[in-house]
Design a protein that fits this description.
heterodimer, A: 379 residues, alpha+beta, Arc Repressor Mutant, subunit A, 3 domains, 5-stranded antiparallel sheet, 5-stranded mixed sheet, 10 strands, elongated, B: 373 residues, Rossmann fold, OB fold (Dihydrolipoamide Acetyltransferase, E2P), 27% helix
C-alpha cells in the first residue's frame, strides 16, 4: 500500500480526522453483512476503491484494494449525506488511478516503454517458466537488438521514493550516455542498459607499455565509476552488478536473473562490498548451491580451531593474502606489517589447524572454509 | 566553510547485536583538520561514511554547520569525498571527471572551466586534462580525485585513506601536499587513516578509535605524551611503547617499581599520586617509549635509580638510530631506540637507564593512565 499523501488535504476538506487501517477482504465482507448502510455493490464482486460501509455512526471507505487486503478510511459518519460519500468515493478512485498510472502520466515515451518493460520483466522473473526473448512489440525497432551493457542497481536507502525514475534516468544519461535504457524492477531496483561505446578505448594508443585491459577489467572500472557517482551524487550507498554485454531483446531476462543472483551472492558472501562482478563470484555460486546442512557439517569436520577463523586479524590477513594471489611480500605491504609478522601469523594458522595456506591445496581449503564460515555464521 | 558536530552517533547493522560505532561525540571546528585513526574494524570509516551520508545513522544527530543533516542526501550535504579507491570515471577524461559534479549542479560553463583549470593548476595536472584515467599513474589519479573534490569548494572534505594505494615515496609527498592544500583552501577536513605517521603529521587533532568507541581525542602532542589508556599508548608511536607489568612498593620513603629484571625508583611527583590513589603494593603496568630507554653514559650516571641490565637479542641499525630488541626487562621483549653510533651488537649485555620522568603507569584492571586527570 502506498503512502497517503492526499490524506491531510482530505481531512481538511471533510473537517474531521481520518484514520487509515488495513483489513482483509473477507473481514470487510463480514462487516458489510452486519452494516446499516452499504454502497451498492454485489457481494460477489471484488471490492473496489470508493466502496463504503456505514455502521454504528462510523463510515469506512476503501482507499486502496488488492486481491487480499484493503486500505480503509475510517471517519465519523454523523453529518455525511449520500452525495458527500459518493463525492469522496469518486475522489478516492481518481487518486488511486492517479497513483497507478502516476509514473506514466506526463511521462516520456521512453519512460512509458521502460515501465512496460519493467512489468513484463518482473513477470518473467517471477514465472516458473519465463519467456526469455522480448515480445516484438517492446523491442522499439532495432534499438534493443544491439548489444548493450547490463547493470543492476539496488539502492539501500529507505528514503528512495517510487517516483525517482526521471531523476535517476537524467543522472544516468548525463553520466553514461543519452543512449541508455533504465528499467524499473522492484522498489529500489533498476536494470540499467548502457551503450557498448563505454568500452571503447580512444586512448589506447597512449598506453604503449600498459598491459592490455580485459573486457572484465573495463566493465569493472565502469561499474566502480558508476557506483562512486551514484553514491556521491545521488542518494548514498547502493549495490551495483554488471555483466557481459548482450542484446536486451534476447538477453533481458537472462541478464536480470544473472545480475540478481550476483548481487545476492555478493551481499551474502562479501559483506561491505558494493560492486558485485559475476566472474568474481564463481566459487561462491558453487558453494551457495550446497545445501545448508551439508555446508555446516563440512565446516564442523574441517575446523579444528574454529575460533582462529573468527579473529578479525586472521580473517583480514587471509582475505588480503588470497586477494593478492598468496603473495607474501605484497600481502605484508598491503597490511602494513613486517613480512616476518605475516609469516608468523601463517605459521600460527598452520600450527593450530594443520593448514598451510602457502600450499595450493590448503589455500583452496581455507578459502572455501572462510566463505562457508561467513555464510553459516550469519545463519 | 563550516564545522561538523556529531552528537551521540551510533551505527548498528541489521542482524548484529553489537553496534559498529558507539556514542560518538565530536565537535569539529571550522577549518580544522581532524584525523580519525585506529586499527581496521575500529569504526573510523563507518563514522566517516555516516558523515558523508553513505551509511544511515542508527541513532544520534549529525550537524554540518548548524544544519541537521541526518536525512539529507550525500549530494545535498555540501561535502566532497576522496576515497582510497579514488574511483575515477573511466569513460571521461580528467577535465570531464573534475567538471561532472559541477555540471550536475548546473554551474555555468565558464565557471566550471575556471574552477577546473584553477584546481588543475594547484594540483599540477594541467597537462593531463585531456587524458583518460587509464593513461595516468597512481599519483596522478589521486590528484584528479582530489581535484574533483576541490572544484566543488565544499564546506567539508572527507578523506578515507586517500593515500594508501600509493607507494611510500609518493605517499610522503602527497601527505605534505594535502596538508598544504587544506590549509590554503581553509576547508574543514575529516581524514581517516590507520597510518599513525599521517595522523601525527597532518591532524590538528586526532581521534583514536577502537571497537567502535572513541578512546581519546587530542592534539598529536597530547596523544603522544599523555595517552589516556594502554590502547592509545600502544597505538601511537613506532616502535610501540613497551609495557612492563610489575608491582609498586615503598621502601624507606621511596616508591619503587619492581618487575622481573627491573627495580627502579619512581620520581616523587608520580610517587605522591600513586600513594594517594592507593597503588602501593598493587600490580600495575609501566609504559616506556623506546626513546626513553638510554644507553648514554651521562644519562646512566645521572640516573642511578633507574638502571636495568639486559641482553641484546637483535640490534637493528638504521644509520641515524638503532633499535635494540632486549631480553631481561620484564617478561616480554623490550625495544629501545638508541644512537646509531652506539656500536652495540647482537648478543651484547648492556646497561641501560629508564627515563622515569617520562614513563607512564596504567591501572592493570581498567588499563587507564593513572596520571590522567
Amino acid at each position: 500500500m502506498s503512502t497517503y499523501e492526499w490524506l491531510k488535504p482530505l481531512e481538511k476538506i471533510m473537517n474531521r480526522p481520518l484514520t487509515v487501517m488495513t483489513i482483509k477482504v473477507p473481514e470487510w465482507k463480514e462487516i458489510a453483512d452486519r452494516a446499516e448502510t452499504v454502497s451498492v455493490e454485489s457481494p460477489d464482486e471484488a471490492v473496489s476503491v470508493g466502496a463504503w460501509i456505514e455502521h454504528d455512526r462510523k463510515l469506512w471507505m476503501v482507499a486502496e484494494s488488492n486481491e487480499k487486503q484493503l486500505a480503509v478510511l475510517e471517519m465519523e459518519a454523523l453529518d455525511l449525506d449520500l452525495k458527500d460519500k459518493e463525492l469522496m468515493g469518486w475522489s478516492l478512485r481518481h487518486a488511486a488511478n492517479g497513483l497507478k498510472s502516476g509514473s506514466e502520466q506526463g511521462a516520456s515515451e521512453s519512460e512509458k516503454l521502460a515501465f512496460k518493460l519493467g512489468e513484463w520483466l518482473q513477470k518473467q522473473l517471477e514465472a516458473e517458466e519465463p519467456v526469455y526473448s522480448l515480445p516484438d512489440l517492446m523491442t522499439v525497432g532495432s534499438r534493443l537488438y544491439h548489444d548493450m551493457i547490463p547493470f543492476l542497481l539496488v539502492a539501500e536507502q529507505s528514503s528512495v521514493k517510487q517516483d525517482v525514475y526521471p531523476e535517476l534516468e537524467k543522472l544516468l544519461r548525463s553520466f553514461l550516455s543519452d543512449d541508455i535504457l533504465l528499467i524499473p524492477l522492484k522498489s529500489r531496483e533498476w536494470l540499467i542498459w548502457g551503450p557498448l561505446s563505454l568500452l571503447k578505448d580512444e586512448d589506447a594508443e597512449m598506453l604503449e607499455h600498459a598491459e592490455e585491459e580485459t573486457m572484465e577489467d573495463s566493465l569493472a572500472s565502469i561499474a566502480i565509476g558508476l557506483h562512486e557517482m551514484l553514491a556521491s551524487e545521488w542518494l548514498g550507498e547502493c549495490h551495483l552488478a554488471v555483466t557481459h554485454p548482450i542484446s536486451p531483446a534476447k538477453g533481458m531476462v537472462e541478464a536480470a536473473i544473472m545480475l540478481r543472483e550476483t548481487i545476492h551472492l555478493g551481499r551474502k558472501f562479501h559483506i561491505g562490498t558494493n560492486i558485485h562482478l559475476p566472474w568474481m563470484l564463481q566459487l561462491e555460486r558453487l558453494l551457495n548451491a550446497i545445501p545448508e546442512s551439508n555446508r555446516s557439517k563440512y565446516l564442523e569436520q574441517s575446523l579444528k580451531r574454529a575460533d582462529l577463523f573468527v579473529e578479525a586479524e586472521m580473517l583480514s590477513t587471509l582475505e588480503t593474502f588470497f586477494s593478492l594471489d598468496c603473495n607474501v611480500s605484497e600481502t605484508a605491504k598491503k597490511l602494513y606489517i613486517h613480512r616476518n609478522t605475516l609469516l608468523y601469523r601463517l605459521d600460527k594458522l598452520k600450527q593450530e589447524t594443520g593448514l598451510d595456506v602457502r600450499q595450493f591445496r590448503d589455500a583452496v581449503l581455507v578459502k572455501i572454509i572462510l566463505l562457508l564460515y561467513k555464510v553459516t555464521k550469519r545463519n | 566553510m563550516a564545522g561538523v558536530r556529531l552528537e551521540g552517533i551510533y551505527k548498528k547493522y541489521p542482524g548484529s547485536d553489537k553496534a559498529s560505532v558507539t556514542d560518538v561525540n565530536l565537535d569539529i571546528q571550522d577549518k580544522e583538520f581532524l584525523v580519525l585513526v585506529g586499527p581496521s574494524g575500529c569504526g573510523k570509516s563507518t563514522t566517516l561514511r555516516m558523515i558523508a551520508g553513505l551509511e544511515e545513522i542508527s541513532e544520534g544527530k549529525l550537524f554540518i554547520g548548524d544544519r541537521l543533516v541526518n536525512d539529507v542526501a550525500p549530494k545535498d550535504r555540501d561535502i566532497a569525498m576522496v576515497f582510497q579507491s579514488y574511483a575515477l570515471y573511466p569513460h571521461m577524461n580528467v577535465y570531464q571527471n573534475m567538471a561532472f559534479g559541477l555540471k550536475l549542479r548546473k554551474f555555468k560553463k565558464a565557471d566550471i572551466d575556471k574552477r577546473v583549470r584553477e584546481a588543475a593548476k594547484i594540483l599540477d595536472i594541467e597537462h593531463l586534462l585531456d587524458r583518460k584515467p587509464k593513461a595516468l599513474s597512481g599519483g596522478q589519479r589521486q590528484r584528479v580525485a582530489l581535484g574533483r573534490a576541490i572544484v566543488r569548494e565544499p564546506q567539508v572534505f572527507l578523506m578515507d585513506e586517500p593515500l594508501s594505494n600509493l607507494d611510500a615515496k609518493l605517499r610522503g609527498q602527497m601527505r605534505a601536499e594535502i596538508s598544504k592544500l587544506t590549509k590554503r583552501l581553509e576547508t574543514t577536513t575529516i581524514y581517516v587513516t590507520h597510518d599513525q605517521i599521517e595522523a601525527m603529521t597532518m591532524g590538528d587533532r586526532i581521534v583514536v578509535m577502537k571497537d567502535g568507541f572513541i578512546q581519546q581525542t587530542d592534539s598529536p602532542e597530547q596523544l603522544y605524551n599523555n595517552p589516556k589508556n594502554i590502547f592509545v599508548a600502544g597505538f601511537i608511536g613506532a616502535p610501540s611503547m613497551n609495557f612492563i607489568t610489575g608491582t609498586i612498593s615503598e621502601q624507606g620513603g621511596a616508591v619503587r617499581f619492581k618487575a622481573p629484571g627491573v627495580d627502579v625508583s619512581v620520581p616523587e611527583g608520580k610517587a605522591a599520586t600513586l600513594r594517594s590513589k592507593g597503588y602501593i603494593g598493587k600490580e600495575l603496568i609501566m609504559g616506556v617509549r623506546p626513546e626513553d630507554i638510554h644507553e648514554e653514559p651521562v644519562f646512566l650516571e645521572a640516573s642511578p635509580n633507574s638502571i636495568v641490565n639486559a641482553n641484546v637479542e637483535v640490534a637493528e641499525n638504521l644509520g641515524h638510530e638503532m633499535y635494540l630488541y632486549l631480553n631481561g626487562i620484564g617478561s616480554d621483549t623490550v625495544i629501545a631506540r638508541v644512537d646509531g653510533r652506539s656500536g652495540i651488537r647482537d648478543g651484547a649485555s648492556v646497561k641501560l637507564a629508564l627515563d622515569m620522568n617520562k614513563v607512564h603507569l596504567f591501572d592493570k584492571e581498567t588499563e587507564l593512565n593513572i596520571f590522567d586527570n
